[in-house]
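SAMPLE LOG
Freezer: B-3
Tube label: C17
Construct: single chain, 159 aa
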Amino acid sequence: MGETYYFGRIGNWDTILTSEEPSISTSIFSLIDMYNQSSKTTTVDKLEEIKSNWLNKNQTDRSYKYYFLKYPEFTSKLNYYVWPNDYEIRMLGTEGSNPLVAYHISPFVLTVCKRINDKKVCDEDQCFIQYSGNSPLILKNGVTLTSRKKKDGKYPNIL
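STRUCTURE (predicted):
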């Protein structure tokens, strides 16, 4: 069902900092350098500056990085993800012994539901699915939407 990525879960930083994949360690060290070079005084302000700078420099980027930085809802749950591409991301509901069979939700779906903030339009609890697949956004009017990569290989702007 795809690769698994950790985003700061306790006990997993060693996997990121000592990864055999050089691009992972390089990215972390680059982030640390940006953090240290920031003139801001608080951690929150330093990270906000790094995020804002990236979004300003990459205004046409619509990869997963854009959505993770632009929309806090993308990282508002367990933060345990799998994905085959930038538009079929699954936010798993557990990191237990077999997380890939747990109920999961697309962070796109979660973000839309949270931003609409009206259970009469959509209810995130009804959008979770189990096993493989891309969880749909199920609207109360009967419309069901999913996020997928276009057939031409390009990514649509969805948020």
